[in-house]
Amino acid sequence: MNAFYTWIGGLALQGFLPSDFQYPFLVRGFLCVLIIAPILGGMSHLVVTRRMAFFSAALGQAAITGVALGLLLGEPLNAPYGGMFGFCLLSTLAMVYVKRHATLPPDTLIGVFHALTLGLGLCLLVALTRQFNVHQVESVLFGSLLTVTDGDLLLLVGIGIFVALMLVRKYNSLLLDSLSPPLARVTGAEPAYLEYFFALLLTLSIVVSLKIIGALLVEALVVVPAAAARNVARGTRSYLIWSVAVAFVAGAGGLGISTRFLVPTGGAVVLAATAMFFLTLMARSMGRRGPA
Amino acid sequence: MIATTTSIRRTRVEPFSARAELQSVARAAMAIMTVALMYLITNSATFRDPGTVTANRNLLPFQVLVRDRPPTEQRMFRELQEGLLEAEARRSMTGAWPAVPALADEGIPPFALDPTARGTRYDWSLIQSGTVVNYLGIPRESNAPAWLVLIQEPEPGVPPDQTYEDEEHHRLITGVMLHVSTWAHADSRVATRVTRSPQTEGWTQFYAVGPSAVRHPPR
Question: Cα distance from A217 to chain B (closest Cα, Å)?
């Protein structure tokens, strides 16, 4: 990878690319955005349709707890994957199972899990700051391009391909199940299976994006692109395309803002996505006013 | 009137068995726990011989241990630590950071000219902006790295910092806690201006023992 970074850095120094690309961390960040945007953007319209926005928020919090747990169990700061993936995937299974079998409304149950993981995470964080330099932990928990390694990039590529393949394979069933579970069942799909399946895919996508965007903000990137896309899309296909486009533009724009103004990447990406939401909202209202 | 015949397909929809669902969820949970445990066993310091665990595992991509660097960089790092302690002592006494010529006049390395040194010579400068202080060294030869000591003073009016002293936290005798770090940049053509966030400008942070080596006692 070093040869690749040197080559890109050379292009930046010669003026063919923006000067920021002379730094490997920024090249890695841009590659991450290229992969994360289609994944999260592609999932976001299903998240919104299936009303899983709050579920995504709870997963972000669970990821903080997972990282803290992994680090306390001795995982390296650069790769606390065991705790992070393990805890989040188990939390997902538990949330979906309880949601399907309890009589309480889903948002109440997810709220309970949200509170549980957040409380546990806070207690673990106190223990963590006694063992680790707080600045090191901070950048891992809240996301920073500077903490992304080549290993993270490879993992992102691997999970990105896996999630994309699974989504393509089950897309029609997932979409139909999101819109009308009884109809999906009649076509042979099993809504229970699809619910677990999608929740686990979403968990993988969120957790793998964590080091770049941060635990607190990653859920925004699975909700805002779809919300913005919904303002301008005219059909299911354009909904998907707009979601991916908004996520990509927000990712690349946020990256640029973050580097230029030295603000956290996650915050910049989410601000860019939110700005696009309001722009599309304005475009929608102007479009409505126009023909009349 | 045209009569049409439509064949109606009847599908029997049965709810998913709760027992089968629980079994599937339990199996999936077991699989996840097994994989996570395997990862922990192979990567976690808890399950490994302490002798095989390196300090590098807790470094971020822009951080290095000085012992892994060439001797010239190790020497410069040591000199900077010595120079920094001297500068901190003067800061405690006078309330101001000493200028580079003042440190050089007292023979404090690396600011003082060392006639016996065979390495690259550096032009040092003190740059200060608000609570951020930089001692920046730019080499006279382009193939040598630039060096930076970044000192972050507490903002005026903030409560006393209770952080324990370690490699990055130095307490002056006045009680003021400083956040200090040492950086090098492979490309010597760095701008002579205050640097607040060196990692975003391609600088590499140097550690003597690593950021996580100091175990803080419980408060």
Answer: 21
